C-alpha cells in the first residue's frame, strides 16, 4: 500500500516562558485510503499532531512526509499550495464565514486553488454529497449545528483532496447528528478514497475507523488496526 502520511521522530516544542513539549517523538505511517482515529486525554497533543503533519505548524525536530514529499524541504508558499490542492480540513476553528451562503463558503478552497471556473458547480455537488441540496443559499446562522458541520465537510472535500484532517468533527453534536456526520465521512472515505485522520474523544466515533491511535503526553501509546 502506498504511504500517504509519514513522520519520524516528530517533536514539537511550544517555546515560551515555560516550553511545552507537546510532541515528544512521534513515528507514524498512514497508507493511502486509510481511516485513522486519534484519541487521548485533553492536552496530550492530538491537535498539535494534526497541525504538524499537515504543515500548518512548524515542527521542532524530526521529519514529516506527505505523499513522499519532505515537508521541511518545502517553502511556506509550497506548503500552502500543497494544503490547498491536496488537503481538506474539518477543524472547529476553521469556521464558516457568516456573511457567505453555504455554496459560497464551499466555493472558497477552489478560489484559493485558482479553480474558479467550475467553483459553483463543484460546490453544489459537494453540498449534494452531504445531503444539503436544499440549503445552498442559507447563511451559517440559518443552519443547524449538524448542517453547519456538513457545510464544513463539503468545503473540505470540494477540491477532491488526498487527505482529510478532522479535529473533533462531531464535538458539539448530539448522538444522532454525530452518527450522520460519521456516516458521511465513512462513505467519502470508502467511495472517494480520501485518506482520513480524525481526532475524537468518543469511542463511538473512533469505532467507525479501521485503526485507532492512542496518544498520551505527546507520544503514541498504542496503535491498533481492526483485525489485528
Ligand atoms: N500555541 C500554543 N502555545 C503553547 N502551548 C500550546 C499551544 N498549543 C497547544 N499547546 C499545549 O500543547 C499541549 C498539547 O495541546 P493540543 O492542543 O495538541 O492538545 P489536544 O490533545 O488536542 O487537547 P484537546 O483534547 O483538549 O483538544 C497542551 O499542553 C497545550 O497546552
Ligand atoms: Mg485538540
Structure in words:
- With 228 residues, the protein is α/β, with parallel strands linked by helices.
- The chain has one domain (3-225): P-loop containing nucleotide triphosphate hydrolases (Rossmann fold, 3-Layer(aba) Sandwich), CATH 3.40.50.300.
- It has seven helices and ten strands.
- The strands form two sheets. A six-stranded mixed beta sheet has the order 6-7-8-3-9-10, with helices on both faces.
- The longest helix has 18 residues, at 175-192.
- Bound molecules: adenosine-5'-triphosphate (ATP) and magnesium ion.
Q: Count the domains.
A: 1
Q: Going by CATH, what is the homologous superfamily?
A: P-loop containing nucleotide triphosphate hydrolases
Structural class: alpha/beta
**Major pleated sheet:** 6 strands, mixed
Question: What topology emerges from the helices and strands here?
Answer:
Elements: E1 3-14, E2 20-31, E3 35-39, H1 46-53, E4 61-66, E5 69-70, H2 76-86, E6 87-90, H3 102-112, H4 119-129, H5 145-157, E7 163-167, H6 175-192, E8 195-199, H7 203-206, E9 211-216, E10 219-225
Parallel strand pairs: 3-8, 3-9, 6-7, 7-8
Antiparallel strand pairs: 1-2, 1-4, 4-5, 9-10
The structure holds adenosine-5'-triphosphate and magnesium ion.
The site of magnesium ion has 3 residues, from helix 1.
Amino acid at each position: 500500500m502506498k504511504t500517504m502520511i509519514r513522520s519520524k521522530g516528530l517533536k514539537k516544542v511550544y517555546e515560551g516562558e515555560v516550553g511545552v513539549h507537546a510532541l515528544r517523538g512521534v513515528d507514524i505511517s498512514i497508507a493511502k485510503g486509510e481511516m485513522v482515529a486519534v484519541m487521548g486525554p485533553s492536552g496530550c497533543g492530538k491537535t498539535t499532531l494534526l497541525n504538524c503533519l499537515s504543515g500548518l505548524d512548524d515542527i521542532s525536530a524530526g521529519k514529516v512526509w506527505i505523499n513522499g514529499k519532505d515537508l521541511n524541504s518545502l517553502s511556506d508558499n509550497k506548503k500552502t499550495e500543497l494544503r490547498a490542492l491536496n488537503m481538506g480540513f474539518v477543524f472547529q476553528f476553521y469556521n464558516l464565514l457568516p456573511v457567505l451562503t453555504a455554496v459560497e463558503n464551499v466555493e472558497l478552497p477552489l478560489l484559493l486553488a485558482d479553480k474558479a471556473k467550475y467553483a459553483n458547480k463543484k460546490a453544489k455537488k459537494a453540498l449534494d454529497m452531504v445531503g444539503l441540496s436544499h440549503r445552498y443559499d442559507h447563511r451559517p446562522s440559518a443552519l443547524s449545528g449538524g448542517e453547519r458541520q456538513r457545510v464544513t465537510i463539503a468545503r473540505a472535500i470540494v477540491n477532491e483532496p488526498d487527505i482529510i484532517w478532522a479535529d473533533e468533527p462531531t464535538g458539539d453534536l448530539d448522538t444522532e447528528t454525530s452518527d450522520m456526520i460519521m456516516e458521511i465521512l465513512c462513505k467519502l472515505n470508502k467511495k472517494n478514497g480520501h485518506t482520513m485522520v480524525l481526532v475524537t474523544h468518543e469511542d463511538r466515533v473512533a469505532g467507525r475507523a479501521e485503526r485507532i491511535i492512542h496518544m498520551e503526553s505527546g507520544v503514541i501509546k498504542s496503535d491498533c488496526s481492526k483485525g489485528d
